């Protein structure tokens, strides 16, 4: 009644109220539309990485997000003086480019706006970070903006991380309700211990969800397509993506350039730490991990990746072959002022044989290879499937999309090489793959082009509709909070736990020298048997200095002597292991013929590993089904511990031969949830088991 009376007295008030309501609604819509302001601080803004990739990546982010509700400011920062830094950044910003589908006039306009939003400042002291935070807050207040978050991109050496992290944490965090994202570039440590120390230090300043460790390989378009491809082709791949159908997986990154100009870095890291421990291992987990039900869930993807890391079988010295291009040591001597007598042991080439200990991939070799000064620049992931078909007709009559006798493979072609661009290739005799048509297109035929020994026409081939730089892809993922494209602390430490023992075992190994480029010939070709990798061409070792050919093992006589009235055999390790394995098999055969079973007691540690490998890969007539295996000693650790003698026996012998589980007798060191407790009487239990199963408690053969 009061409202009625009021509006009768003021007929124009209805119009005024309607206008007010509209203004309020418009303001609400604008507030919804403007999602907040993001400040991006590029630390190391005058460095090489920033110049080549990061400024362009930030510009691409701006192009992708302009008009979508966010406002931006870009702060280039470094130790360079303000004047020099401003000149450098201005020059870089002038060179920024747009995708081909953006008109030149529109590109110039957007680049101009980006330049206006970008500035350079010197960041060195804590006071500098306080001033930066105040400037950001003043801009927000002046323009009436709500802060969405801040991104700090660390394009600086790892030794600077701690001081910068401390300054950000104490003086430059965003206000309540806004997020912080800190982007870190590799290397993330030198081994597991240094990685753990760095992670602990950073963890004292930042939460795990705030840290984004970059591996730029995860931004490569072909690599980024691995999980979506597996997801979109689940039905076709479900029965194929396993040990029953996959013959092997190759993960390769070859370079033609050498390490000249970077020998300081390379002497500290080498090819395994530089490429295999990060880039290639990350790719391996994408291929080998169990596929989550929802691949768009970062949490699920990262959890499944960690499970893949945990399934990696431990590496040993024989899992690797190493090389070094011949000019490398000379380059190190010049660049690092080393004496003329200096010869580096740092590998510039490595091939690694990896196995997974799970039901899906048991027995499937994963070959990781990378090197410098090779014959071509190329990167790819190749899944080669077993060929179990026989075709009665001659090869000339085989049809690519019908014949099961042609090679069957899926290739994620990362770039360069004969094809020259990223691609996904699927053999026509497998299935027609499904890829998103808005981002991938079929490759046009290129007569005469052969890949992996087959013409391109043998494949369904797809390439990106628009090629994107890896850093542009990753910067977009950082902005959108997609953690699955980055390396968590847990996954980082799992990777270093896998690689560090191998790196330690290879620290004093001399790599094979190779001339570089096309002259390498077949010198770096390698082959694998079981868990061992070796070069296909044996390079004679110079055992004694001086002219003439080097002696070989067969030039040395086996010493004949006695030890406790038994023959004592002394020989080169290879001959000695082969002889010992032959003798063990002969003893086993005699025992089985006479008694129906063979009792073998084995020692632990690293010494018997070559023997285990010899027995597993060269003695297929061994009577394993009638063999009982015992241990002569054990460490006070759980049987699943890598230090356990039983675990060594399992890794190097048991999983490769068929010994009935009831014939394997580990020592009972872990009873009642405790280790080697005297009151548990583990030794007495083992003695009773031996007495019950072994005639006269006397083994047929004991290896000490």
Automatic annotation (TrEMBL):
Lineage start: Eukaryota, Metazoa, Chordata, Craniata, Vertebrata
Superkingdom of this protein's organism: Eukaryota
Key words of the record: Carbohydrate metabolism, Glucose metabolism, NADP, Oxidoreductase, Signal
Disordered: annotated span: 537-556
Glucosamine/galactosamine-6-phosphate isomerase domain sequence ranges: 573-704
Pfam families per record: G6PD_C (PF02781), G6PD_N (PF00479), Glucosamine_iso (PF01182)
Gene Ontology MF, one: NADP binding
Official protein name in the record: Glucose-6-phosphate 1-dehydrogenase
Cellular component aspect of the GO annotation: endoplasmic reticulum
Pathway of action: Carbohydrate degradation; pentose phosphate pathway
GO annotation (BP), single: glucose metabolic process
Glucose-6-phosphate dehydrogenase C-terminal domain: residues covered: 229-520
Species name: Gulo gulo
Residue ranges with Low complexity bias: 537-554
Entries under NCBIfam families matching the protein: pgl
Ranges for domain Glucose-6-phosphate dehydrogenase NAD-binding: 41-223
Keyword Signal: yes
Signal peptide as annotated in the record: 1-31
PANTHER family linked: GDH_6PGL ENDOPLASMIC BIFUNCTIONAL PROTEIN, GLUCOSE-6-PHOSPHATE 1-DEHYDROGENASE G6PD
Keyword Lipoprotein: no
